[in-house]
Amino acid sequence: MYDAVFLKPQDINELPKIPGVYKFHNSSGDIIYVGKAKNLKNRVTSYFNKSTNHNRKTIRLVREIEKIEIAIVNSEFDALLLENSLIKELQPKYNILLKDDKSFPYLCITNEPFPRIISTRKRIARSGTYFGPYASVRAMNNVLELIRKLYTIRTCKLNLTDQNIKAGKFKVCLEYHIGNCKGPCEGLQNHENYQKDINQAAEILKGNLNVPKQHFKENMQNAAENLDFEQAQKYKDKFELLEKFHSKSLVVNPKLTDIDVCSIISEDKYAFVNYMRIKNGSINVTKTIELKKKLDETDEELFLLALIDLRKQYESNTEEILTNIDIENLPEKFHFIKPQIGDKKKLVEMSLKNALFFKKEKLNQNESSKIKELRVLKKLQNDLRLKELPIKIECFDNSNMQGTNPTASMVHFKNGKPKKSEYRHYHVKTVIGPDDFASMTEIVGRRYKRLVDEQRELPNLIVIDGGKGQLSAAVKALNKLDLYGKIPIIGIAKRLEEIYFPEDPYPVHISKKSESLKLLQRLRDEAHRFAITFHRQIRSKNSFTSELEGIEGVGEKTIDQLLSHFKSVKKIKEATYENLSKVVGNSKAEQLIKAFKQKKEDN
Length: 603
What we know:
20 strands, alpha+beta, about 600 residues, five-stranded mixed β-sheet
């Protein structure tokens, strides 16, 4: 828990000069940014001073601030932890948001007679001892496979209590016959012998390979001294298996232990952070994440935010952290080192290589995505015989239910992808009854009249959800605006996926496997989804308001206030006079109570 204080932007000089976390609220009361500070007053006032040094995003953030909430904590480290948890919980729009995968893979040694070692994504404390989380399923499976090659640990789910074993309820399975299990289900292996294998496996899961290596080495030597060369060879094979596994994850110096390595590579818009956890001379975890900058964050801010999150994910509590940048504001409980020579510098370089490789892969993926987008658009241009590449495409659909609540929608795709900020909903205003053609003429006309009046850029292609009739209706609107022939327009019919062109009686059929047809289908389906969703919202709202509209003195504005506060007509009816009067005043509250009472008596 922490103490919260609220201030107006003009009161920032009253802020204390102590560590804490600040939250910026906008006029709607939403939290738009969360930050931490060693000195709250200096940090928060920096947003409102010297705005010429801020980038455009920071200036926009400052303009939206209506209220400042501060939380005072004991230390900068506590502020760092609180900031991280609040960003995760609140997800403010101006903060860097780190993905929090809640289902990392673990290995668990179960709490049961003759314990099993199982993989799981759920941690239930009572069910066993957990090891991990692992950076990937592959890394987890490699460890599990190694353990199963070294030890004879059961994989069955039998309830191997002493009582069940003595009663002879179980029989050995194939795993016993092929040498992967020693048959504890029939009492062929006792608890003490089985537990030795489990204890050895636990050391491997902890990352301590030296204990099992020493165990196999000693057993190999003892077997050789007793002239049991066959058994000695088995122990030698297991020892070499461990050596091979260890060599794959061995760092420069096996003596390095309990160290975190974290490096950052930063660009104008993105940063890439690599994290490695070193334990007992081995790299237990390696993970790289991408951060998209929201404001003018420094590398140090990005680094600390990512580091706290990654350490929390992988349950690291080591104090020593190797890094590639200078951390000026050193939080207590952390010992940052920027090594210049030796094995530790090689570890930082290894971390940087991981970050660089991840960055290169991301850039290649983005480039491949752009090439694919361009290819699909060129294919669509060829299929529809367009003069220009259809960079911007707009698709229209309308919706009504038996003529009621006629609405329409327009979706906008740029470079073959939805641009939701350009989506538009329409209430059909001039059409009475279920007339889809007239509705299409109205909404297409309204859309492009506005674009022309505002001198905004027109799309490269218009798509109409429907056949010849809907297309002709849209063309009619373009003719009125003198835009017909200046913007390509087509209709797509649902039944046979036919493409209609104006003034052409015969439709065009594009191959069902064509990427260009799939893009048109996606446009059509998105427009339909957007229209249906809006229409359902209107119908739902109208069904709510119908019970309130007939009440004298209660208009549309009052209904909106009531629904905004109480969320449903049922809750409005159940509200007391006092609660109603707080929202709409005494007079209207009396009218509502009276109307609800009268309706109840009539029924």
